[in-house]
Amino acid sequence: MQTQPPSIVMQHIRPQLSIDRAGGRRGDAAWIEGMLAHPQARYLLLADLKQAVVSDAEDRAAALRSFTAGELTGIRLDLADVVFLGLAEQDVPVFVVALGAHLLAAFGSVLEGCGPFVELRSLALQGQMPPEELALAGQARALAAWHATQRCCGKCGARTRSREGGWRRDCRACGQMHFPRSDPAVIMAITHQGRLLLGHEHRFPDKFYSVLAGFVEPGDDIETAVCRETMEEAGVVIGAVHYIASQPWPFPHQLMVGCWAEALSDTITLDVAELPEARWVSRDEVTAMLAGSHPLGHKVPPPLSIAHTLIRGFAEGRLGAE
Ligand SMILES: [Zn+2]
After folding, report:
1. What pTM was estimated for this model as a whole?
2. Which of 84, 217, 232, 301 would disulfide-bridge 305, Cβ 3.0–4.6 Å?
3. Ligand 1 centroid to 172 CA: how many Å?
4. Ligand 1 mean position, distance from CA 182 (Å)
């Protein structure tokens, strides 16, 4: 039985930082003002968290679309709450402007000329956009989603305002500082003697299966969360938990922590309210699911996700005992 954490080649989308976030300088309000006044400053645009992109002749999105400050103020967009994403090549500052769903109607057809606007999941699935652009779009989406829910202070209820180029919000009344958060969740390949535990959740499309996942709760460490979620959802008892890899998942702002553990038995006791179906699947069957050649049409998540990386790692013999 394999006891060492396996080395697994990363195949999911990872944040390949194409920009310098300038964490040591963005706290300086004067420096941010200077970046906003930079003649080459670029602005990404989100409308209801969908990304403005450039598409090719076949209408496939191939790149993030960026704007100048003049182009955006020209359509009367308010740039007061822009978020600084970082410095691109030659220290050109990149910001994101996010228009909430409630504001879209006010702009109407003016916005059409700025699009198309595409959801990040679709961009990743299309496979046309370079990984570093997808990572930048993920950063922009996660920050925009956080700002959209932090208008008021969780401590006293007063209004908050953006600080540090959008990397903090401060309460106007009590001064409480609020920072962008990532919500950790575990996602785990549970194996047993050469088979992988796959589940079908209520929210999944028909014939779609994936590895189990769940949020890290207060008081959990990663290992406890993996054991607890596997037990709660499938009633499966597992041995040692091994960390494999992680992935930011900006829907809205999660961090997926990918793990592997060998089950101590193959007994499944489902909590059907959480998980209607779970079963042990052989390597041959998982390989067919990945290849799209499963006889019953069963599918697994696409390559953009860490779930796919874990499932492929099992199929190729890099995860789990024989
Ligand atoms: Zn407050």
Report:
1. 0.85
2. 301
3. 7
4. 21
